[in-house]
């Protein structure tokens, strides 16, 4: 599928992805995949690549992609968030693909972007360490110059698909500050393990580096900050989709659950909960759309928009997931119901790339409060 820039083309993209996921990634399938060894369905991932062209969505046309950007990427992630779809898409396309495309490193883009676009390469970005901090300035992993490039040493935690990705883009500290370094996942000096995660629909890994060979990608600290901004904007889009799914589920249940001979949705307390949640989800969607729009270029507003979207969308998804469980009552707490999966996603993604409080603090710094 070739993406465009018009509203009609973007809505066509949304409709196509929604139909595909409704058919190939229903709740029952998600539950099967989250318990499998792979964590996703390779056949469905292949169809996403071949039939919809999603792997190349945000990759320039000269590298085999369709030339889209954060806006088109946000549309797909919103739809994936609605269904908690387990897939290499987020790590490979939203994280690594965007990082490479924004790097300005022509050699790195030519080497890896075509393989990402055709689905033959999975990739991810590794930033956080055992301290749990996602701030580039807190990175302790070391990058040492070597005859053949660089050597990396250190431990990375909470790496999305870190235990299985073919390519790792690792944030490590060099002489000029934190930078991004490409490491082949199967190379010597790389030890990877899967972590037990709260969210079973998203796999996280631990990556230990002991003199692993690496190639530098892009510049120093400002570029790493750009990579993180693009990541939180992508995550915000996914969170909006999941929050919308929670709202939809709560409203539908309120229509059919009868108490005292009336649907519970007719009670004022439930109406107010749903109405308040609708306002919050729509506000989150606006924040996400704005962040995606300004991230499509080199706007100086991107850091502010990214911090705002990260803080607000995380909070809204958590509230939506909790309200969904509350409105469902006892059944919402059971393993058989999907409500708990959305709460798990909410609490897990709330801490990815920094907690909401950290993004609020950064936002305050950026606007001079």
Topology:
Elements: H1 7-24, H2 27-34, H3 42-50, H4 70-83, H5 89-102, H6 106-117, E1 123-126, E2 142-146, E3 149-160, E4 167-174, E5 177-184, E6 190-194, E7 204-217, H7 221-256, E8 258-259, E9 262-263, H8 268-295, H9 302-328, H10 339-349, H11 356-367
InterPro entries: Acyl-CoA_Oxase/DH_mid-dom_sf, AcylCo_DH-like_C, AcylCo_DH/oxidase_C, AcylCoA_DH/ox_N, AcylCoA_DH/ox_N_sf, AcylCoA_DH/oxidase_NM_dom_sf
Protein name: Acyl-CoA dehydrogenase family protein
Domain Acyl-CoA dehydrogenase/oxidase N-terminal: 7-119
Describe the structure.
Strand 8 and strand 9 form a beta hairpin. The protein starts with 6 loop residues before the first helix and ends with a helix. It has 3 domains: 7-121, Acyl-CoA dehydrogenase/oxidase, N-terminal domain (Butyryl-Coa Dehydrogenase, subunit A, domain 1); 124-219, Butyryl-CoA Dehydrogenase, subunit A, domain 2 (Beta Barrel); 223-367, Butyryl-CoA Dehydrogenase, subunit A, domain 3 (Up-down Bundle), CATH 1.20.140. Strands 1, 2, 3, 4, 5, 6 and 7 form a 7-stranded mixed β-sheet that branches. Helix 1 runs parallel beside helix 4. Helices cover 51% and strands 16% of the residues. It is built from 11 helices and 9 strands. It is α+β, with helices and mostly antiparallel strands and 369 residues long. Pfam families: Acyl-CoA_dh_1, Acyl-CoA_dh_N. It comes from Pseudonocardia eucalypti. Its cofactor is FAD. Residues 226-362 form the Acyl-CoA dehydrogenase/oxidase C-terminal domain. InterPro entries: Acyl-CoA_Oxase/DH_mid-dom_sf (IPR046373), AcylCo_DH-like_C (IPR036250), AcylCo_DH/oxidase_C (IPR009075), AcylCoA_DH/ox_N (IPR013786), AcylCoA_DH/ox_N_sf (IPR037069), AcylCoA_DH/oxidase_NM_dom_sf (IPR009100).
